[in-house]
Amino acid sequence: MSNPAATLASLLRVSTIQDHDEVLKLANAAIKASKADIDAQHTRVVALLKLDRFDDALRAIAEGGHTLESKCILEKAYALYKTGHLQEARNTAEKVPSAQADSRSFRHLRAQIAYRAESFVDAASLYHGLASEKAGLHDDENDIKINLLATNAQLEWAGLGHRIDESERQASRADLESFETAYNAACAHIARAELPKASVLLKRARDLCEASGDLSPEEQKAELLPIIVQHIYVLSQLGKVSEAAALQKLVVHSEIPEAPTRAVAQNNQIALAGTEGNPYLTQRVSELAGKLSGNDKLFEYQQSVLRRNKYALELQMQKFRGVDSSTHNHLLTASTPTELLDVAPLGVVSAAARTEMGKGKAAISKILPVLETRPNDVGLLLTIIQLYVQVGNPGPALTILEIFLKRLEAVTPADYTDVRFSPGLVAVTVALYRLQGRQNSARAELAKASAHWRSKSECPSTSLLREAGVELLHSLNPEDVAAAGATFEKLVAQPGQDITAAAGLVASFATRDYSKIEPYLQRLTAVERLTAGIDVQALIDAGVCSAAALRPTTQKRSATDEPEKEKATKRRRKKRLPKDYEEGKQPDPERWLPLRDRSTYRPKGKKGKKRAQEATQGGVVKEEETLELVGGAGAVKVEKATGGKKKKKGKK
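Structure tokens predicted for Signal recognition particle subunit SRP72:
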């Protein structure tokens, strides 16, 4: 009988990728003959990983004891990564010896773990290090390039696009050579909302995949489905619903091998169906995708979209109390500064559930007390502000926002100030100030935001700094102009050619420090070219037209008395004639008297005739006499008694 260990060694020398089952059988036989054979145990672990039996590989490592575990650190970390135990995988990777940690395979694994754990900054750093090594020395060059593009797309989705070099933000010619790189470049454009470019790249990726001769029909179909699903989303966002619906017919959910892609395709189908269908049936269809676990879980931004869609369906089914309770509990758990903005959309959903999809002042009265319970709920705050603006009452909205911002400034840790000066909240504050004509307050808000982000090494929004610099340049205060110059200095220091930042820097230091603006003058268009064809003298003769200043929307009376406006002359009304008017005919002289006082008045009924008889005209005139009161208290008029026959008294 041959030695199992020798047979295993000879097989490993000539093994190929098709021999993993045979390698596993011989490794088990060698371990059965000698349980202390570390090489056989290591071989079994590798064979299990090659066969995608990751849970079995982890059990085999645990059975081998400390000696095998110290030898299989890379294998254990990879198995934990594939089973979705990302934190354990990262902890295991940190235990690797320094000599092994510098190996290319281990750095590649660490980058994959960081990517799946949504630590995209670390993943990008590792992939850049791998890509910077000499090309041609490794077989994974194309894989590194594909993964780096995917990481850049995830950085864009996470709001960290400013960390990407400007040269990598646009698709290169090399990215159009394979369907994987074209697809990942399209995803980056989707994250930046550059949907037309993304549509072109997805079409290119689909054509390259269909023309690829290196894939079997089954592999080609598996690669095409994610591209088509992503293209359906882009077309629907572009408003090309008919094209998206035509592509949707090509997707068979049961044929999609990856569970995350299946969930996204299911969501696209529901979205294209519209809101006119039965929400109960729609919810039933959405549950068919099943729950995702392990490495099949969606990224957080994808889960947040599906979560909001689920709540939207429940609102259509009028499950207001359940949605309010669920979102309320979720929002109360948000404690860190970053979570305040991550869960902000749920605040809007909670407000919709609490008001039962109501609007106006009634909705404000229902959700305003909730803000006291959840004072850090950004979504609820913005919903209240929006409702106030819709009813034409921005004053209370600005008051609530200012109280919220002051509380964030006073809260520790200092990371809450990043939330306070987040681009969205600053934009809302500036918009409300400008709506009320408070231009100086808007400028002061932008100045504070600029000062905050200038003190940071990174700014999440260059547009915020650009707007702040432009606004500060309009000020006559030398301190504001200096702040504008510092703002533009930070912008021009970032990679890329920002012409607006260069122009702002020149405008800020043109009269103060020529040496700072001299390197940027070549970037700007010459003044002679800009003013070519303009008649300067004609403009001077026409005068300067100043824009009308915004007036505040308050109802308070101004301090200075305004000159009284001239009273408009009263327009005389046109004379109106009666319908039966005849020219030359004498009008009735009694036409101004009430009807009952006219001579032609004839009352109807017995009471009316009696009153007519008692009237002075044509009736008996009653005589009156004046009687003096006793004691000289005056006199009164009474009807004079008329003579008549006295009735005889009867005999007693």
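The chain has a mean pLDDT of 81.
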